[in-house]
């Protein structure tokens, strides 16, 4: 897989998870304290990398 494609998939996975976490935050499903400061970004990065691992296997 090309480096550009890999980077694009990682960034897309992060963006998708950040959007999902923002939706969860707005709908008040989870307490707002969890998403204070940079926590939402860190959670989105971790879950985005997990999502990438799940999707990257299908693209090879």
Can you give a write-up of this model?
By secondary structure, this protein is an all-alpha fold. The protein has one domain (3-59). 75% of the residues lie in helices and 0% in strands. It is built from two helices and no strands. The chain starts with a helix and ends with a helix. The mean pLDDT is 86.
Question: What attributes characterize this protein structure?
Answer:
single chain, 60 residues, mainly alpha, 2 helices, 0% strand, elongated
Overall mean pLDDT stands at: 86
**Biggest β-sheet: count, sense, barrel?**
none
Helix content: over 70%
Number of helices: 2
Would you list the SSEs in sequence order as H and E?
HH
Number of domains: 1
Number of strands: 0
**Structural class given helices, strands, pairing?**
mainly alpha
Based on Cα principal axes, name the global outline: elongated
Poorly predicted runs of 5 or more residues:
none
How much β-strand is present in the residues? under 5%
N-to-C span = 7 Å
The Cα radius of gyration reads: 13 Å
